[in-house]
Write the structure tokens for this entry.
Amino acid sequence: MNSRIALAAGLALAALTTEIATAETVWLDQLDVRTASQGWGEPQKNKSVGGNALSIGGKTFEHGFGTHAESILHINLGGGAQSFAASVGVDDEVGGNRAASVEFIVVGDGRELWKSGVLHAGDAAKDCAVNLSGVKLLTLKVGDADDGNSYDHADWGDAKFETDGAKTFVASGEEMPEPVAPYILTPPAPATPRINGADVFGVRPGSPFLFTIPATGERPMKFSAKNLPDGLKLDAKTGRITGALKKQGEFVVTLRAKNILGKAEKSFRIVCGDQIALTPPMGWNSWNCFAHAVSADRVKRAADALVKSGLVNHGWTYINIDDFWENHRDSNDPTLHGDFRDAKGFVVPNSRFPDMKGLADYVHGLGLKIGLYSSPGPWTCGGCTGSFQHEAQDAQTYAQWGFDYLKYDWCSYGSIADGKQATDSSIPSWSEGKGKSDIEVAIYPYRLMGKFLHEQKRDIVFSLCQYGMSDVWNWGGSVNGQSWRTTGDITDTWRSMSDIGFKQDKAAPLAKPGNWNDPDMLIVGEVGWGKTHPTRLTTDEQYTHISLWCLLSAPLLIGCDMEKFDDFTLSLLSNDEVLAIDQDALGKEAMCAINHDTVRIYKKDLADGGHAIGFFNLGAQPVDLSFNEFAPLGLAGRQHVRDLWRQKNLADVDTLAGSLPLTIPAHGVLLYKFKAAK
Ligand code: GAL
């Protein structure tokens, strides 16, 4: 190389400048590709997103950019590049996984210059060659080919520019909002009693009943209930209702709470029938913080933290153990070594979980519920033992231990569906297999486990986790599922959260009490899959995340280390008027009603005839609106308007002649409730 390349840090954060003195080849990896935004993992230079040598269809590349859909990298060329070339495709590290399907797109000054078409794992690298003369801003994008971004490890192999002399290239990600320090909108709960949480609760006849009345206010507090049906009793000190109901029926109960400062009451409907989870489950799951490093001790501490933080008083209930409570097939970690099953075939937890029943008792003793995780295949996604051919035994075991929730992942079942033997040691922990194309194959393992769970004399919420394959929202309820993931895994980036959250309309009409679409767990607080860090979402992105998930009637599963709560994160998770939107008894899921430029407006109908409306701004600059498009939101006449985050009434609006002034923060939201004025 006979040219000089000087790298200097630019003023823009993390942007690097490359100066080129003469006509020259400039490799993409000479720019700072770390500024790219992407849907999973970290952008990598000369490596795949998984940290391996770049390899597409068996061919390796010394240079390049390893990323993950959806991915965006801008390069300011200032008109100084002649051409761009690369060999693109899915990285071989995903092991032929058909779930991996991506599309590479090259955009110059807002105009599409080249598109790869959909590429799958194992496909040969596709060559891209683009003329850039005159182009100032180049954008390299990788889309998820409209099927979610599971396993979308994407490589721009040997990506390079030909330039015409001394020029400055700057790589940057999407335009991002100016950082804003955390600001708390949720007003503190009053010291007088207030009963929060859902207005309705489902239970099956004969199943053990456990419901803790979520109430804020100074302790001690005394609880009582009017018209509690036979079979149930209330502990006046703790507010826990336990027992069992013999027969089907609906019971309208008045819950009461009293402390030295005052009293509160609330009407509460207990529905004894076949449906459970009549409102979306709320709780915590170990995956997004502890991942493979979960232990019984950490789970107990999480349960303690849920109580100590006061979140239990806002309706948060489940403490769910994700993968890695079972023994592992080949881990180096000795705490995961041991028998998978006993002589009779019952599952044996790993040494970090010496007493599953004791753990469940501990969690129940706090008035909370407990969940766990398995897979229909021989192995879980993390490589621990799964339920294959032991489904009935596992369902029985979970019930005997006293578990209340099962997350059932797909994982190695894809290989079984494709006819591989469970004993074949080469089967990968994860493969989609025929689950994607053959609906009967997709349904089968869930129908099986759904039936066994339903046979237990215990209500076990069945949460399907197969990323939306075969449009699970159309059949998840028919296999006794209460919720189902609609997407691949979330991560704590704006790209990931917004790509998932704003693409739920297809499944939305299928949500109803007892049947919830699950866009994956929450990513606020200290998250990090085994090594935690503060969420990378900005303050307003976090308001967007919680508001959107509540509008979507999503199961709300906190994914952070709850021993590390800060005041801001707690305020996001304890706004009762916001949570009430998620828990609304009508069980409708919001859909996008208005889509203009960067603005998305979501509407959710509520049980009291009101409407929750989320005004979202996907852009990097604040948006000012004088809003008057009330008809598409189904709003007529004079409407009361309430700001739910601030818990404040705004001026009424006349939907015929009036308008609503809105300033929506960048990547932020205003969440309002509208109710027709009488
Ligand atoms: C994934 C699942 C994650 C987590 C993980 C455990 O497939 O989507 O939420 O459960 O498996 O290995």
